[in-house]
Automatic annotation (TrEMBL):
Belongs to the 5-formyltetrahydrofolate cyclo-ligase family. Substrate binds at L56, E61. Its cofactor is Mg(2+). The keyword Cytoplasm does not apply. This is 5-formyltetrahydrofolate cyclo-ligase. It comes from Avibacterium volantium. GO terms for biological process: folic acid-containing compound biosynthetic process; tetrahydrofolate interconversion. Keywords: ATP-binding, Ligase, Magnesium, Metal-binding, Nucleotide-binding. InterPro entries: FTHF_cligase, FTHF_cligase-like_sf, NagB/RpiA_transferase-like. ATP binds at R10, Q11, I12, I13, R14, R141, L142, G143, M144, G145, G146, G147, F148, Y149. The lineage of its organism: Bacteria, Pseudomonadati, Pseudomonadota, Gammaproteobacteria, Pasteurellales. GO terms for molecular function: 5-formyltetrahydrofolate cyclo-ligase activity; ATP binding; metal ion binding. Its EC number is 6.3.3.2.
Length: 191
């Protein structure tokens, strides 16, 4: 398969799955959030994880608000990604508190304001829950196309964190057209 065809396939999948995801009713979104929250909390407890990388939902992604609230109640540290200010197309993870100041990045996604005192290196995170557009049974993840998470998740086995996708059932496909730079996830929780 040539590269153009694979890129076109990936774009078609992105477009179709994003439309499916955005068409979910508020009740479906809420039920999925409840399921994901419980699954994530069970995994965090099983792994005795104390430092959790998460994201603020955007564009129909499964909501993480309930999970974040539960983690704060349990005194488990939550870290959100921000676009790295000096290293293009990379992410930094910053501690996120109930009173953290948020701002929109160049993609319109809310992220904490950069404060170097709140940065935690990825190898000190226990789990990074990642957003995704689509996934398959092999653990392959298709994101929005910027490669931010692929770069962040590189060599995750040596960095001691688990990359876990969070998704709606409608985001699963049989098989994704995979590129050499795609980083498979440890697992995907489905709401």
């Amino acid at each position: 398969m040539n590269l153009t065809t694979r890129n076109q396939q990936r774009q078609i999948i992105r477009q179709q799955i994003r439309q499916l995801r955005q068409s979910l009713s508020p009740a479906e979104q809420n039920l999925a959030e409840q399921k994901i929250t419980q699954q994530a909390l069970d995994l965090i407890e099983k792994k005795q994880a104390k430092h959790i990388g998460l994201y603020l939902s955007f564009d129909g992604e499964i909501s993480t608000k309930q999970l974040i609230q539960q983690l704060w109640k349990k005194n488990i540290a939550v870290y959100l990604p921000i676009l790295h200010p000096f290293s293009a197309n990379n992410l930094l993870f910053l501690r996120y508190h109930p009173n953290s100041s948020l701002q929109k990045n160049k993609f319109g996604i809310l992220e904490p304001k950069l404060d170097v005192r709140n940065v935690l290196p990825t190898n000190e995170l226990d789990i990074i829950f990642t957003p995704l557009v689509a996934f398959d049974k092999q653990g392959n993840r298709l994101g929005m196309g910027g490669g931010f998470y692929d770069r962040t998740l590189q060599n995750w086995q040596q960095k001691n964190f688990l990359p876990i996708g969070l998704a709606h059932q409608c985001q699963q496909v049989d098989a994704l057209p995979v590129e050499s730079w795609d980083i498979p996830l440890f697992g995907v929780l489905v709401g």
